[in-house]
């Protein structure tokens, strides 16, 4: 309050009592805290309390009082008839020495966005601990993600649904880049579009989403090759629009040729599940094995888990990095939604309340930390020392 009482000094004596803010009621003082206020200078000290006119504006930005460039060198009258004090006069009126209140205390008092502060603290903790703890954490080799919440994210912000899908594409790009940086992560399988979405979503939304997928593939194609990311597809690609299906086959063949010709292995295998359903994938795998048996290429006794896994649409990812170690689902839903039902028998599940477009490195770090704290037994016990049947 004293910051804005400075212009009165030309009109009233410079006495501590005239400048103290305790003449206002407590509710007024709480109103002034964290607000930028202007007033008309009173004509006398007696009318000081009655003539204060508060024009409460937007909350002041953090650090505004610390920026000396925002104060003029001398007192000058503005176009609205208000005055702006100089920093020296501000210190003189408050009567507070520079050493009694540090800049950090002022910044903490001026901040009114508790959620932003919490987010910043999480970011700082992540940045400080990631370098020291990432090497100690047990990271998954194969990560799967159900990218849920694009439409809900868009509805909350009153933007078109397609904008939510665009932001979801950006979130996938961030996650691919992050996984490619982690040496322990070798495969990422992303659930982009299910066969149920294809049948049950509005036609105009599905068509717009297909156009977005095609444009994104053309845009990301050279970037993934440069960054050592090999892309593969799972699902009924042939049922997609002809141009998108052809592009998917071309991108996958190009990635395989580039990986075979390169002297260094790919940093990450990205499998995009499009028009995919786990139940249908299992049925298709059974049909392939039946066809092979009818042609005399295998016997019934030859069919085991390994052979059946190789017949699934995700076989390239499982050959590369095994079954998924960690499955992440966003937007608060806690179900599998017909995704990787066979491959996820012993997969660790992590559910995030964050909608997919807002899923960032901080959220992924929480998932990795949760995975590193879990004990995976695969049906056994860690303290078992007796002989097993295997």
Question: Largest sheet, described in full?
Answer: 6 strands, parallel
C-alpha termini separation = 78 Å
Radius of gyration: 31 Å
Strand content range: 5-15%
Main sheet strand line-up: 5-6-4-3-7-8
**What oligomeric state do these chains adopt?**
single chain
Helix content: 40-55%
| Mean pLDDT value | 76
Question: What best-fitting shape do the alpha-carbon axes yield?
Answer: globular
Number of strands: 8
- Strand/helix succession: HHHHEEHHHEHHEHHEHEHHHEEH
Low-confidence stretches: 8-101, 106-117, 126-135
Number of helices: 16
Q: Structural class, from secondary structure content? A: alpha/beta
Concise structural overview:
The protein is an alpha/beta fold.
Description:
The chain is α/β, with parallel strands linked by helices and 390 residues long. 45% of the residues lie in helices and 10% in strands. The protein contains 16 helices and 8 strands. The chain has helices at residues 2-5, 16-19, 26-32, 48-51, 87-94, 103-110, 114-133, 150-156, 161-181, 195-200, 203-226, 242-261, 278-294, 305-310, 315-321, 361-372, and strands at residues 76-77, 83-84, 142-146, 187-194, 229-234, 268-276, 326-329, 348-351. The strands form 2 sheets. Strands 5-6-4-3-7-8 form a 6-stranded parallel sheet, sandwiched between helices. Strands 1-2 form a two-stranded antiparallel ribbon. Strand 1 (76-77) and strand 2 form a beta hairpin. The radius of gyration is 31 Å and the shape is globular.
């Amino acid at each position: 309050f004293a910051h804005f009482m400075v212009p009165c000094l030309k009109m009233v004596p410079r006495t501590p009592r005239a400048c103290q803010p305790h003449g206002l009621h407590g509710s007024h003082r709480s109103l002034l805290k964290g607000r930028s206020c202007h007033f008309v200078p009173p004509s006398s000290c007696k009318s000081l309390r009655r003539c204060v006119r508060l024009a409460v504006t937007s909350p002041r930005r953090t650090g505004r009082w610390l920026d000396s460039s925002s104060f003029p060198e001398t007192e000058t009258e503005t176009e609205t008839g208000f005055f702006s004090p100089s920093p020296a006069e501000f210190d003189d009126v408050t009567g507070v020495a520079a050493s009694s209140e540090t800049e950090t205390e002022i910044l903490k008092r001026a901040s009114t966005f508790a959620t932003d502060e919490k987010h910043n603290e999480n970011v700082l903790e992540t940045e400080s601990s990631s370098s020291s703890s990432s090497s100690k954490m047990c990271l998954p080799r194969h990560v799967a993600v159900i990218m849920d919440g694009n439409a809900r994210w868009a509805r909350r912000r009153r933007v078109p649904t397609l904008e939510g899908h665009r932001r979801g594409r950006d979130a996938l790009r961030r996650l691919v880049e992050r996984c490619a940086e982690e040496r322990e992560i070798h495969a990422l399988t992303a659930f982009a579009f299910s066969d149920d979405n294809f049948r049950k979503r509005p036609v105009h939304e599905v068509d717009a989403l297909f156009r977005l997928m095609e444009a994104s593939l053309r845009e990301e194609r050279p970037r993934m090759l440069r960054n050592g990311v090999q892309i593969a597809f799972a699902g009924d690609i042939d049922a997609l629009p002809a141009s998108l299906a052809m592009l998917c086959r071309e991108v996958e063949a190009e990635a395989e040729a580039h990986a075979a010709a390169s002297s260094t292995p790919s940093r990450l295998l990205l499998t995009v599940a499009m028009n995919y359903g786990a139940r249908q994938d299992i049925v298709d795998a059974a049909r392939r094995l039946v066809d092979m048996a009818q042609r005399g290429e295998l016997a019934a006794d030859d069919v085991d888990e390994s052979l059946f896994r190789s017949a699934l649409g995700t076989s390239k990812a499982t050959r590369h990095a095994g079954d998924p170690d960690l499955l992440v689902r966003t937007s608060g839903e806690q179900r599998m939604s017909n995704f990787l039902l066979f491959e996820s028998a012993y997969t660790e599940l992590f559910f995030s309340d964050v909608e997919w477009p807002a899923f960032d490195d901080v959220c992924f770090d929480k998932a990795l930390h949760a995975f590193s704290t879990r004990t995976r037994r695969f049906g056994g016990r860690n303290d078992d020392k007796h002989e097993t049947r295997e």
